Amino acid sequence: MDVMQAIRERRSIRKYRADPIREEALHAIFEAARWAPSWGNTQCLRLVVVQDQATKSKLAETLRSTRPEGKNGATEAVRNAPVVLVACAERRLSGYNRSGDKQGTPATDKGEWWFMFDLGLAMQNVTLAAHALGLGTVHVGRCCQSAKWDTFGTEHFGIVKRCEQAPSGPDCSLCGG
Inter-axis angle of helices 23-34 and 115-132, to 10 degrees? Predict the structure, then answer.
């Protein structure tokens, strides 16, 4: 499948078969994320793979709704996907001056939020690669930022704890597939 075909045909999928995702497919998806462009090649993306049912259910509960009935349409997708990828950013890398007398300060008026561009680029690669491999995804961005990520336990979120560099916690989005 060429890239233009993948862009035109990819759709957000919210209902998944229970079939496990092959390890080779996951590695191909990670490779696609790794090749995404980033500010100064800082590669701030950190992906956490979640396959544990209890953890997926806890993640699903962090989703906020935009619907009058109070339910996020992706809640069941996150709960029932064979794999959920949590995309986190190592903060204070993307969009920051890396040398000189301004080292460690934001380089643009976007402040520390430049990492959101990098995560968006990487997650687009993830969804297109998954589609090319015959896998469905939905990108979920309505996670409750006040969720206590550390309550999920280090056995599943050790990577999130390691990439956390600010007291406000990691910035994450979800992608079920």
Answer: 140
DSSP 8-state class, residue 95: T
pTM of the model: 0.79
Q: How far apart are CA 93 and CA 95, in angstroms?
A: 6
**Start-to-end C-alpha separation, the chain:** 19
Alpha-carbon distance 41 to 112, whole Å?
16
> In the chain, how many domains are there?
1
User: Domain span at residue 166?
Assistant: 3-176
**CATH at 113:** 3.40.109.10
List, for residues 23-40, the tens digit of each pLDDT value.
Answer: 999 999 999 999 999 999
pLDDT per residue as tens digits for the range 66-80: 777 777 778 888 899
Long-range contacts of 4-12 (CB under 8 A, 24+ apart): 6/128, 6/131, 6/132, 7/128, 9/131, 10/127, 10/128, 10/131, 10/137, 11/136, 12/137, 12/138, 12/139
The predicted pLDDT at position 86 comes to 84
